[in-house]
Amino acid sequence: MNMPGGDGMKIHSILVYLVKIPYRPLGSRWIGREAPPFLESTVVEVATDTGLSGFGESCPIGGFYLPAFAGGVRAGIGQIAPRLIGTDPTAIARINHAMDQALYGHPHAKAPVDIACWDLLGQSCDLSVSETMGGRLADSVPAYISIPLTDPEAMVAAWQQKMQEGFRHFQVKVGGDPVEDVARIHALASRDRDGCIFMADANRGWKKADALHVVSSLDGIRCYIEQPCATYAESLTVRGKCRQPFILDEVIDGPQDLARAIGDDALDALVIKITHAGGLSQARVLRDLCVAHGIRMRIEDTAGSEITRAAQAQLAANTPEEWLLGSYHFQSGRPPTAQDAPVVRRGRLHLNDRPGLGITPDRGQLGEPVAVYGNGSGPC
User: Which residues contact 32 (CB under 8 A, 6 or more apart)?
Assistant: First the structure.
């Protein structure tokens, strides 16, 4: 059943595209177990009766990193899309309510639709997404770079190279042998004279005992510890023994999880992955909770192309910079899916002032849709 739509813009059709993105592993023990040669990114176009279209993207890493996979994203969209035809895409609360009624859970499937609707809202108002969220606070936001897991000196060399490019926020991949990981963290932090921010990310790769060894060996070292263990309970135990500020990532699935973590004093910072949250709408809720409780954050996503880069940058630009630990730049290693996405200069993502996400999707790179919903049509 369609929602009441009023007299405004209406969704005419929803088109789904499949884009293959080369996967470049960073040495994570967790992700490296099943590292695929490429990622299947699902791009959604929400087309309206006015001729405007909004775009969103969802790109899980295989089916083993988070509870999502590319085929599930597309199947979930198939459950959602028929409910949305004929409705107003700029009524984003109603859109999300309709998606929740059509499909329980599956935030990765709802996220690209939500993002596309924010894109349309901005275009319809001639405002960027960050402006429609209440105002753009900056035209550029800090970007971070990941230092792949390898031997300590090679990681130092990679860090020094990125320092020369202007980066000051660094995610340091760890999660292997705890003694070697301590050496990696020491090698980087002990050489820093510029006040860099280091985030030692285990990607759930440590056993609890190994994580406890690492944090007990870092007295005097200035860094964050990020997602050390596979479960919230294990991570909370490590948090209790850790003197470094603590980041949670994969174990926080939504506002309820975050509220519990705040009550447990389980974190100093949160990684907000837009599609893991369910789109810009839910990511914004997480952002607001973090700001209200004095918790810093990275605003990013699991993976993606220029469409994802634009979406995360818009939310970050609507966030006071003192709360930001960086956003990712998603250099996909393939021709861009969209032009005019935020560009990286001197360690920052620079946004344009165009409406919506500020991008021009490249239909040649998107190819033909793999599914079209609307006017009685279904999966191709």
Answer: 25
